[in-house]
Amino acid sequence: MPMMDRRLVENFDWSIICVLIAIISIGLLSIYSALYLQIQVNPTRNLFVRQLMWLAVGFAVMFCTLLVDYQKLKVASFWIYLFSLLLLAVVLVVGKEVNGSKRWLEIAGFQFQPSEFMKAAIVIHLSNCFSSQEISTYPGLRRLLIPLFLVALPVLLILAEPDLGTAISVMALSMTIIFFMGIRWRYILTILLTIGPLLWPIWEHVLKPYQKRRILILLRPDLDPLGAGYHIRQSKIAIGSGMLWGKGFLQGTQNKLHFLPEKHTDFIFSVWAEEWGFIGCAVLLLLFATLIVLALRVARRSKDRYGSLLVVGMTGLVLWQGLINIGMVIGLLPVVGITLPFVSYGGSSLISLCFAIGLIENVSMRRYVFQSR
Amino acid sequence: MDTKRKKNETLHLVNWEIAEVTVFQRQYLLLMGMMLLILLIYLLRLWHLQVLQGAKYRYQSENNRIRLEDIPSPRGIIFDRNGTPLVENRPAYHLMLIREDVQDMGQTLRELARLCARAPEEFQNVIDANKQTPKFLPIRLLSDLDRDCLARVEAQRIRLPGVVIQLEPKREYITNGKAAHLIGYLSEITETELRSSTYQGYNLGEDIGKFGVESAFEKFLHGKRGGRQVEVDAVGRRMRLLDEVLPIPGRNIWLTVDMELQKIAESCMEGHVGAIVALDPNNGAILALANSPVFSQEKFIRGLSRDEWQTLSRDPNHPLLNRCIGAAYPPGSTYKPVVALAGLKEGVISLETSFGCPGYLQFGDRKYRCWRDHGHGSMEVERALMQSCDVFFYQTGLRLGVDRIAQYANYFGLGEKTGLGLHGEHPGLIPTSWWKRQAVGVPWQKGETLSIAIGQGFDLATPLQMALAYAAIANKGKLWQPYVVSRIEGNSSEEIDEIKGKLKRKIPIDARFFEIVQKGLLGVVEDDRGTAHGVRDKSILMAGKTGTAQVVRVADGANRKLVAKMAKEKDRDHAWFVGYAPANDPQIVVAALVEHGGHGSSVTAPLVQRVISAYLNSKPSLTSPPASQ
C-alpha cells in the first residue's frame, strides 16, 4: 500500500494545496457574483452548485491520481494519448454544435470537452517520449520530428472544431516541454525563417476574405464592434471601474451588462477585478505566481527526467492558460476562448486541472522513494 | 540476472546526468524570469486601468451604459420581368420597453395604454410573460403601431424613460394572393432553423423566407443585419454613437414571370382546382406559374391564428400546394406525342404506318377501349394524334415495350425533377419493368404497357414537366432547364448576375420526326376533326394536345361517356391541355390542368387559348425572340 508509506506523506507538498484552495475560493466568489442574479431568476439552472459538484469530482480525481506511482503512467501513456486523439476525432463527427463549433461530447447526459483531456494526455505522452534514454538534452531536429508530429495531430483536430484557444494552450504547453529539453537557437531561427515567408502567399491567395477578417479581429478587436470589440470595451470598463479597492462583493454594476454570456467563464477575471479592485487582482496574480513557483520547485527536486518533464508540462497548463486569459481580459492579448484555471466555471477543465495538480503532488511525494519495482 | 537489470534501471531513474541538470536549471531560471516579467507587465497594466484611469472607468460604469442595437437589413425586392415590384418593405414601428430604465412602472403602463387606446392589463401581461428576460433588454409591448398612436407616443416619449420605438422593415405583398405560390412568404425563424448551419448568423426574431422564391433565394434576399454600439444615459436615451456596422441590404431579384400574364392565367383558373404553367420554349424561362386555389401571403406576415392555420392546412383542396411543380398527375393523352416520337425514331412506325381502330383493342382476355366507342377506322400517326386515337398508341406502345417508352420519356425530362430551383418539386414517375419489380415486387404485365402508352397507369407528370416536354417538341429537341429568376441585382450597379436559360439536353431524335408530330399537334386545333378544334382562333396558329387523365378505372366494356357523366365530382377525370403558339415560330408553351375537370378539349383548351392569345396580342414585339438576342 503506497499510501501507508510515511515518506510518501511526508513529501506531500501542502503549500501547493493551500495556494490552490485560495485560488479556488476566489473562483467560487467570482462565479457566485457573476451568476447570483441569473440564479434568482432561474433557480433550476444553478451553475454555482454545479461548480461545487465539479470541485468535489475534481478533488476525488486528484486523490486518485496520488495513489498510483507516476512511473506506471509510462506504460499507459501512448494509449492515453491515442484514446484522447480518438475522442477528438469522434467529437468532430457526432459532437454537439454550439455557436458553430463542435467541442462537446455527450455521454449519458454528461457533457465534456475531449480537447481538455488532450491537454493532460499530450503532457504525459511527450514527457514519456523525452524521458527515453536515447534522447539527450538539446535533441537534434530529427529527434524532434516524432514529438512535433504527436503535437500537430491533436492541434489540427482541435483547430477543426474550431477551438483556437485550446489549440493554442496545447501548443504552448508542448513547447514548454520541448523548451526544457533544451532547444538550439538556430532551430528557432530556421523555423521562423522558413515559416515567415510562407505566410504571405497563404494570406494573399489561400485565405478567404472572411477568414482574413477573423484573424484581423483577433488582433484588433475594435474591428468587430458588435462582437469581440464590445466584450473588450465592457471588460475594460469593469476592470477599471474597480479602482484600488473594488466596489465590494456583489456590488459590481458591469456584471449585469451585455458581455454576460461569457462572464462566468472567459471573462471571470473582470468580475473579480470590478468587485475587489487592484488589490484583489494583485492578490490573485501573486497566488498564481506562487503556485507556479511551488510547482516548478517540485520539478527541480524530482528524482528523474520523466517526473520533471511531467511536472513542467502540467505547470505549463496552468501557467499559459492563466497568462493568456488575463492578458486577453485586460486588453493586452487577442481574444481567444481560454478560461482562467481554477477560477472560471467549467467541469472538463477543472477535472483536467485537478488531475494536473494531482500528478505534480504525485511526483513530489515520490522524489525520495528508492523502491525497486 | 533479472534482478540485476532491474537494479540498473532504478539507478538510472534516480541519477540525473550532470549535463542534464545544468540544462534544466537554466530553463527553470529562464521560465521563472519570463513569468515574473509578464507578471510585472500585467500588474502595471492593471495599475494603469484601475488606479490611473480608474476614475474615468468608474464614471463610465455608473453614468453611462453601452448598449448594442440591431440595425435590420432591408430585404431584397422582387420584381417581375417588366420591372413591376411584387413585394415591398414598409417601415413598421414597434413599441418597446426597457424595464431597467422605467422609473414608475404602473404610471408608465397607464400612460402608454392611454396613448395607444389599450387596456393597461394587456401590457402588464406582456411584462409578466417576459419575467425571464434580463431587465436591460427591450421587450416588445405592441407590434406595428398605427400612425396616430406612433405620433402620440413619440410626443410624450421624453416624459417616459425606458420607452423606445423600434423601427423594422416589414414585408408587404403588393399583389397579395396573386402568384402566392411562386413568390412565397416570410415567417419568423424557428429554434431548430437557428441551430442549423443553413442559417448561421441569424438572430432570434428574424424573418426568413418559408415558401416559393422568398425561401429558395433566401441567401440573396436576406442581406446581413448590422448593429451599433451606443452610449445611453441613465434613462436610456442615446448619448453618443461609439461604433457602427452598417447592414448589407438584401439583393433585388427579377423574375422571368410576366405579372400581367400571371394575373390572366390565375383568372382563368378561378373556380377550378388546378394549375397553369406558361414558359418560353426558346430558353426555358417561366412566364406564368398559376395555381388554384391561392392563399394570402399577408396572413402569414401578420401571423396566422391557430384557427386560420387549421382551416388552411385541412382544406381538401390544399391551397398551399404548388400544383405546377409539386403535384403529379397521369398525363393522359398529352403523353401520346412522346410515344409517337419514340415509335418513329425506333422505326416501329413510320409516317405511313396505319392501324385500324374498331373502338377497342383485344389484348389477352381483356378489351382495351378507345375513347371513341365506335372507333376511328384506319389511322396513321398524324391523324391519330389529331383525333387522339387510343388504339393506334396501344399498338405503337406494344411494339416499343415499356422500357423503350420510358427511355424516350426520360429524354423529355419526364420522371425527373426539372431543376427549377424552387422547393417542393415532384419528380413525377415514368415506370420501367425494373422499377416495378423494385417498387411493387411483381414483374411487368404486358397489358400495363397499353395503359402507359396513353399516359395512364403508373405514369405521373407535373404540369411544368409537360410544358417543358412540349417546349422540346416545339423547338425540335431542345430540353431546357426551367428558371424563374432572370437577374439578381447587387449592391452596386456593376454587381449584377444575369441568369440565362440552360440547355439540359439535346434530344437525339431527327428533326423530320418532330415535324411529323408538330403537324399532328397543329391538326388538333386547326383540323375540322381535331379534338380541340373548338378553340381555333384564326389570328393565332396554335398547336397542342388534349388529355383526359382517368381518376377511376372504367370497368371493362362499360360506356366511358356514360360513366363520366354519372361520376361524382371527385371521381371525374383530370383535364389537360398543353399547347404552343405560333406553331410556325413557337414563342410560348402553356400547360393547363384542371383537377376533376372532365374533358381537356372542353375545359382546359379554352384556358390555354386565352393565356396564349393574351401573351401574343399584348406583346407584338415578342413575336420575335426576346431581348436575349
Commentary on this structure:
The complex is a heterodimer of chains A (373) and B (629). Chain A is mostly helical and 373 residues long. Helix content of chain A is 69%, strand content 3%. In chain A, strand 1 and strand 2 form a beta hairpin. In chain A, helix 3 packs parallel to helix 13 (347-365), helix 5 (114-131) packs parallel to helix 13 and helix 11 (268-301) runs antiparallel to helix 12. With 629 residues, chain B is an alpha+beta fold. Chain B has three domains: 2-61; 68-251, Penicillin-binding protein 2a (Domain 2); 259-623, Beta-lactamase, CATH 3.40.710.10. Chain B has a five-stranded antiparallel beta sheet with strand order 12-11-23-22-21, with helices on both faces. Chains A and B meet through helix 7, helix 10, helix 11 and helix 12 of A and helix 1, helix 2, helix 3, strand 1 and strand 8 of B.
Tell me the strand order in the biggest sheet of chain B.
12-11-23-22-21
- Counted beta strands of chain B: 23
Q: How many domains of chain A? A: 1
Estimate the strand proportion of chain A. under 5%
Q: Based on helices, strands and strand pairing, what is the structural class of chain B?
A: alpha+beta
CATH classification class of the largest domain in chain B: Alpha Beta
